[in-house]
Design brief:
Growth Hormone, Chain: A, UVB_sens_C, alpha/beta, 14 helices, about 475 residues
């Protein structure tokens, strides 16, 4: 039987670079270069842009990578020009070109700016670093807001007295420091999302190449603008449209991202749809998801509301919510410990505990020691069932709103809460496997959720029905 071997050689972008065919007569391989047609024009474009695109583009990145990068490049262009205008104002404020300028004063001002900026970096990272991943869209846009605020302060500074100028420039540098932390962290998180093939390092390197080219073009255009624009009115006439364009492009860039992990807001949108019989796709949830809000208020499509929900809450937070209901109860109120024991009995087969006070709108999900990220999603869906507008708790809440004097939970009403918790738990546990499969089939990565925000805790049961004893 004659041997027939044909091999096509492709580069990392899928571009056909060579064809090999075995020649039985000569016993060797014939090499031929493919003649590309107009239909391969897209591959040619990718080939020429390869210094700026990840290898294997577009198959190596997610679908939202391209629109995000387009708007991100536009915002970088506008930001570069605005930055040059702001830098000129800073130079003027520091006395560049003035005979009255003092080198010592300028140096001290620079040291003060750098000091404030570094302190702001440390303080912001310490306070908010654990929230950035869960609210990456918010912090990505927040970074550009404070960056533009820094530009505005820079432009104002030359027209202030020396003390006001120093304070303004220090605040401006603090804003840039916040931008550096929020922007750098959020970009790293988005890069992880975009890198479908796990090529995070290369994607970041190519993103740096794109920014370099865009910034270079922006610098030349900005240099021309700065040389032509001199007056205060002219400067602001250029600065305001540039900042508006910068923020608009950033808004569009962040809005185009379709994250596949669950934070509080995305979980509310997704599970609210699940309870209504529909499993929303990444695109549907992304269109509904806000940017400026961080999901602190759990408002559903029908207006149901919880003021806060803490996933991975501490035991102290759980007890604090339970104690709220003991105030003003005639006679001996049921202790929080007794309620907690009853709650443990209800959830002894689960990897989480849930308590929601519909009166105050507070809810906590306590995670047990072996709780997984998927468990967090399951517990959050349970919370959504509990907050359903047709539940007895919601009806009871309506009555309390009509009569504030009855806003304190009585012990027998706690029995109703526990009974409804047990009822919704059974319903949630029964339906969860099918819901989980549907949600994952829609593209959601439940095992990579970011429902925990800030410091979170796990609990170990040392006694009781689900306790674990060291062997």
């Amino acid at each position: 039987m004659p041997i027939d071997i044909q091999i096509q050689e492709l580069d990392t972008t899928g571009y056909n670079t060579a064809n090999y065919r075995y020649d039985a007569y000569t016993g060797g391989f014939e090499l031929s270069t493919p003649a590309h047609t107009v239909n391969n024009g897209k591959c040619q474009v990718y080939r020429y842009l390869s210094p700026f695109l990840p290898a294997g583009y577009p198959s190596s990145v997610t679908d939202d990578y391209t629109p995000y990068q387009i708007y991100d490049s536009l915002q970088a262009f506008a930001s570069t020009i605005a930055g040059l205008l702001a830098s000129r104002a800073v130079f003027v404020g520091m006395g560049v070109g003035s005979e009255d300028a003092s080198v010592i004063t300028t140096m001290l001002l620079y040291i003060a700016q750098a000091t404030i900026g570094r302190i702001a970096t440390i303080a912001f990272a310490d306070r908010f670093s654990q929230q950035i991943e869960a609210n990456v869209k918010f912090y990505r846009f927040f970074a550009d807001i404070v960056n533009d605020a820094a530009f505005v302060l820079d432009c104002i500074s030359p027209h202030l007295p020396i003390l006001g100028r120093a304070i303004t420039l220090c605040v401006s540098n603090a804003c840039r420091a916040l931008c550096g932390v929020a922007g750098g962290s959020s970009k790293a998180i988005l890069s992880t999302h975009f890198a479908k093939a796990g090529n995070i390092g290369e994607l970041n390197a190519k993103d740096g190449s794109q920014e370099t080219v865009v910034s270079l073009i922006g610098m030349w255009v900005g240099g021309l603008v700065v040389s032509k624009v001199e007056g205060i009115a002219e400067t602001w006439c250029c600065m305001i449209p540039l900042l508006a364009l910068h923020l608009w492009c950033n808004w569009k860039a962040v809005k185009s991202v379709r994250l596949s992990t669950l934070n509080t807001e995305r979980a509310v949108i997704l599970f609210d749809g699940v309870l209504q019989g529909q499993t929303k796709s990444l695109d549907e949830v992304g269109k509904q998801e806000g940017i400026l809000g961080k999901g602190d208020m759990l408002r559903t499509a029908e207006g149901r509301l919880l003021s806060s929900c803490k996933v991975g809450a501490s035991v102290d937070e759980l007890l604090r919510i339970m104690r709220l209901k003991e105030l003003g109860v005639p006679g001996r109120p049921e202790t929080a410990g007794e309620r907690l024991a009853r709650l443990l009995e209800v959830f002894h087969e689960e990897e989480y505990l849930l308590w929601a006070d519909i009166t105050t709108g507070q809810a906590v999900i306590i995670l047990k020691e072996d709780a997984s990220v998927v468990t967090q999603a399951k517990g959050f869906l349970h919370l959504m069932r509990l907050a359903n507008s047709h539940s007895p708790l919601q009806k009871d809440k309506t009555k309390r709103m009509e009569d504030p004097q009855k806003s304190i939970m009585m012990p027998q009403q706690d029995d109703e809460i526990l009974k409804y918790l047990e009822q919704t738990l059974h319903e949630n546990s029964t339906l969860w496997p099918a819901i989980k499969d549907r949600v994952q089939a829609a593209g959601w990565e439940l095992e990579k959720g970011t429902l925990e925000q800030g410091p979170s805790y796990r609990v170990r049961m040392c006694n009781g029905p689900d306790s674990k004893k060291d062997k």
